[in-house]
Request: fold
Amino acid sequence: MIVYLINLERANDRLVSATESFKKIGIEFELEVAVDGKKISLPHQNYSELKYNLLHGKRTNLGELGCYFSHLNVLKKFLDTKEDFALVCEDDIEFEEDIVEIINCAIRSGINFDLLRLSGGSDRTKEKGMPVKLKKIHKEFYIALNFGFKSGTGCYLINRFAAKNLLEKMRVMSLPIDHAMDRDWALNLRSLCITPSPVHLKEELHLGNSYIQAKSEFKFPLYKRYWIMAPYRILNELTRLFYKLFIFVKIKIES
Reply:
């Protein structure tokens, strides 16, 4: 497994914080200098602004473009290695002390996955994505299948098959990275998660101190946004539900 840390060159405070988090758990990482959204000019050949506006209900946020392209750059580098898995991390996270054992137990669990979501939000009392437990793997941690949208890409484990599919099917951005990555049926992969999340967002770096600044000011007015976005979101969540039910039954049959 190879480990990547995505960090903006101008965000040195986050690099220092993340480096300390990695030292605590004894993991070395390769630094990936993030694409700086402030340096992106539009139009961009790998960004569909119209689809983004229609499907996401927001005006363009260059910070989200930088984040999106940074993750794709990491996946390209991963495929140039011979490693089976990559652990992709953003720079506002901290780990449970057993994270290495949790990851190893997930890989050895006997439940196949292409993408394993490891991070939650800054509020540790709330689990994102409506996770349904599949198997206990270590102490209180379970490998699980999320039946709802799981926001955030703070930390995830990905195999080569999934990396290839993401690079092929997500080459042109039309949604933020977490929305695009959480559509298993469109990407032809199986994503699972760990519950409770063993990786957390540092509140002092995540809330109110984000370099992406995905704030409400980017949203279109309510009357315009929901007429455009709501039908897509409803269809998306219904598709997710049926696909996850299919995967749930398949996992039960496999085990």
The first helix runs from residue 12 to 25. The mean pLDDT is 92. The radius of gyration is 18 Å. The chain has one domain: 2-254.
